[in-house]
């Protein structure tokens, strides 16, 4: 039998014991909780959509913003999945870990839920169930950047080359000096046109008077 002294001695241990917390099941996207995903979305399901085509003349997102080197889409626009982006990011981190303080910057984020219906399923009865997260990226957008500390170009180029091998479409290596792109066209800087010289009068002072 338990004595009163043993019960009182066990009370402090019971008071500080951790209380188990049950995580509610059925969370949206719980199947791929280890992948990168948005914290909150407005709609649980979205239409398939199309990859945007940069026709408005904007060059936003086509140059480096955080790092010193990066990769940019050179081929056709593509839809990236969260798994593809995570795999490429891990490859870059593994390649640049020899440089202390080096960082990887992901310029795109998968925030579009993709729903898939099973094979040999009859038409109708609503949209399919959630499968994975994805994002649509047009031509000319920067995907990954490497920087944070001074890093050799050879190391950054090799790390980004390995990451590009894990992703679809083709890419190009860019630096801080790379020019912006508008789709498949590189925007050249507009040369400054000097003002025309003012005409010089050839009249003599006597003729002017």
TrEMBL record:
GO terms for molecular function: rRNA binding; structural constituent of ribosome. Residues 188-209 are annotated as: Disordered. CDD domains: Ribosomal_L16_L10e (cd01433). Residues 200-209 have a biased composition (Polar residues). GO terms for cellular component: mitochondrial large ribosomal subunit. InterPro entries: Ribosomal_uL16 (IPR047873), Ribosomal_uL16_bact-type (IPR000114), Ribosomal_uL16_CS (IPR020798), Ribosomal_uL16_dom (IPR016180), Ribosomal_uL16_sf (IPR036920). It comes from the Eukaryota. Pfam families: Ribosomal_L16. Keywords: Ribonucleoprotein, Ribosomal protein. One of its GO terms (biological process) is mitochondrial translation. Belongs to the universal ribosomal protein uL16 family. This is Ribosomal protein L16.
